[in-house]
Design brief:
Layout: H1 2-13, E1 20-24, H2 27-35, H3 38-41, E2 46-50, H4 55-58, H5 61-73, E3 77-81, H6 99-104, E4 109-112, H7 115-125, E5 130-136, H8 138-149, E6 156-163, H9 166-174, E7 182-185, H10 187-193, H11 200-205, E8 209-211, H12 216-232, E9 237-239, H13 251-260, E10 261-268, E11 272-281, H14 290-293, H15 314-318, H16 350-356
Parallel strand pairs: 1-2, 1-7, 3-4, 3-5, 5-6, 7-8, 8-9
Antiparallel strand pairs: 6-11, 10-11
Amino acid sequence: MEAARRWLERIRALPRPARFRIMNVCGGHERAITMAGLRRLLPPGIELIPGPGCPVCVCPEEDVHRAIRLALDEAVVLVTFGDMLRVPANVPRREPRTLEAARAAGADVRPVASPCEAARIAREAAPRPVVFFAAGFETTMAPVAAMLAEGAPRNLYLLLAGRLTWPAVAMLLESGRPGFDALVAPGHVSTVMGPEEWRFVPERHGIPAAVAGFTPESLLAAFWSVLRQNAEGRPFLDNRYAEVARTGGNPSARRLLAEVMEVTDAPWRSIGTIPRSGLRLRGRWRAHDARARFPAPADGARRRAGEMPPGCDCAQVVLGRIYPDQCRLYGRACTPRRPVGPCMVSEEGACRIWWAGGVRAGRAAAPQETGP
């Protein structure tokens, strides 16, 4: 704690604008910030804005719906990471709207903690098809690629919802209204892909950036760095997680990702398609593609397909346009026990993190031009 206190003193000693908005991309960063109470400790005017760092939150609604229908309509075992069980799709009330509800209706849906567990279930269930609904960013997709490269069972199919983090930030910066003055880049993603992936932020857009770890000390060091860069008018990428996130990232993980998957344009829930932001199977691994093995049924009659539920502002939270408690449903219709939107489901969702941090009452949503 002494080191954290010293960083706070250094931050307070810096010249600062009246308002300085720092976006953190990673859900793990947001959890560390909230649980350590860093927002309350920083000087007035410094805002910490949670950004697009929750893969569960941005997983396309269409993929959630497809997973539910696969589990109910096909003779498969559907496995997925635990958070995905409670993410809602937009369906009539009489139909199961989550994988958890599909399981209650008789579908064989099982949570898994790792790709290796999915492969084990497939071996035990053979020849019955097993569909692994895999949503995640680079840190999750690398183990998925490794599992396939090591020899996945022939009856294992992937409903892949892999996403890359940097294109979402690039989209915000290129929108003309990014809503933040500095960026704290994700530590785990930088460990896999290399911190240099984030150089485009200062080099193309003139915005200070720093990679951070997950301790209060590392985060405060990153905040100090971007504030100092701003004060000196000299934006660059500072690596404050250098003991783990090293130039070049993890060569083995990057090689496996490039070998097994290819980059493609991809939809983000209620945000739209972001160019070059998704991952799909390539080459011989397409034999494990659940989309090819189980073609999707026509969804033409489904209302609000691809959208958030009515009244849910998760997409605006993910983009950093509003804070979690500015969502119209936060703490009212939407709580962790009865989540309406995905941001209240996942352990990396900003709404769920804020609720766990003690923020209960929602406040009226501010107009986007005056919000974060």
